[in-house]
Amino acid sequence: MATDLSSVPDMTASLEPLPRIDAYEQWQQSEGVTTVSGFYIEDLNALELGPWKRKGGRGAIVNLEGTGGVNDMHVVEIAPGGASEPERHIYEEMVYVLSGRGSTQVWYADNRKSSFEWNQGSLFAIPLNANYRMFNTSGSQPARYAAVTNLPSVLSLFHSIDFVFSNPFAFTDRFSGANEYFAGEGRLHRGRTLETNFIADVHSIQLHEWKERGGGGTNVMIELAQNSMGAHISQFKPGTYKKAHRHGPGAHVIILDGLGFSLLWREGDPSWQKCDWTPGAVVVPPENWFHEHFNTGPAPARYLALRFTGLHYRQRAAFQGGGTDVSVKLGGAQIEYEDEDPRIHAMFERELAAHGAVCRMKGLIPWCTSER
Ligand SMILES: [Fe+2]
Questions:
Q1: Position 117 pLDDT exceeds 70
Q2: 147 and 96 in contact (C-beta within 8 Å)?
Q3: Less Cβ around it within 10 Å: N or C end of the chain?
Q4: 235: CA distance to ligand 1 center in Å?
């Protein structure tokens, strides 16, 4: 006769609970560094920093709501004429220079050091687990950068600080140590995708037309250092906005130029999270929340997105199925203009009027009141 297992009493009720461990959280506490959270940050340039021994300068660790814990941002400032502590780590790091100028040394083997220079607006990636050191080459101005890393995911997987920060493995398939590694123009692929390891200035890099996303927008997708993470830059015209869409967590949208706001909302939730921005702001749309970026200023708005997943090496969990520029009605993740909540465009027109700017979306939005 079969035993009815469902009737066995819970013998575990009096036992010690299994501890719940967040290895990333533990690491963060042990670093003793300033931490920042929230939906968005108004200005990375003004972010208050504290001492960060590992970096040999001042810094802060940023964990915005929309990362869902998959990635984070390290904001670091190097003193005039100073240098960071040499580091290596088994997590990817994309570096965007907020201010100042300097150089970086990168190496696997001590006798093969690559070195390159950067300025405000430069973007590059440290090859996985390469040794590196940052130098501020100005004697009078601090240099500040914001780096998006996948350390939270990596530490959660391996939960060993030694493995992540003191690992001798060299990923020579990602970085050969060649001197021109950070010098190349990169290689452009179909789909506005640029494979490169260094961009001198994200403010002025050439963008390409992206019709499907609307708003007369332009864009370039960026794949750095054979990373699993990726980046892109998008720009859209004054008095316009691109279509709402959604995807996985961890896309850090850093405003480079322009004035405007972003709306974030959960499907079916009539309340929006509104983030007003100017250059230096960063917003991370939470996983599968719809989001939309609005230009209410007199000039083009441009942003840099540093994402959890790249295009070449995909991390499937970070994608919303069906394509982020295909209508939700066709199984995609984008809301076409005619399917948008009409209150969104009304809000956009009010914000434009408040800035003395005009809407340029006549013919795109059925209920647009503009003549342009
Ligand atoms: Fe997005």
A1: yes
A2: yes
A3: N
A4: 13
**Three-state secondary structure call for residue 329:** helix
What residues does 273 pair with on adjacent strands? 264
- Can you tell me whether residue 4 is helix, strand or coil? coil
CA distance 169 to 90: 9
Distance from the alpha carbon of residue 101 to the mean position of ligand 1, in angstroms: 30
pLDDT at 339: 94
Query: Distance from the CA of 259 to the center of ligand 1, in angstroms?
Result: 18
Q: Could you give the CA distance from residue 197 to residue 189 in angstroms, rounded to a whole number?
A: 15
CA 175 to CA 279: how far, in whole Å?
32
CA of 268 to the centre of ligand 1 (A): 18
Burial degree of 39 (CB within 10 A; 0-12, 13-18, 19+) = middle
Predicted confidence (pLDDT) per residue in 186-209, tens digit: 999 999 999 999 999 999 999 999
97/103 Cα distance (integer angstroms):
11
Q: Ligand 1 centre from 261 Cα, in Å?
A: 14
- Sketch out the chain's domains with CATH numbers: 23-182 (2.60.120.10), 188-354 (2.60.120.10)
For residue 262, report the distance from its CA to the centre of ligand 1, in Å: 11
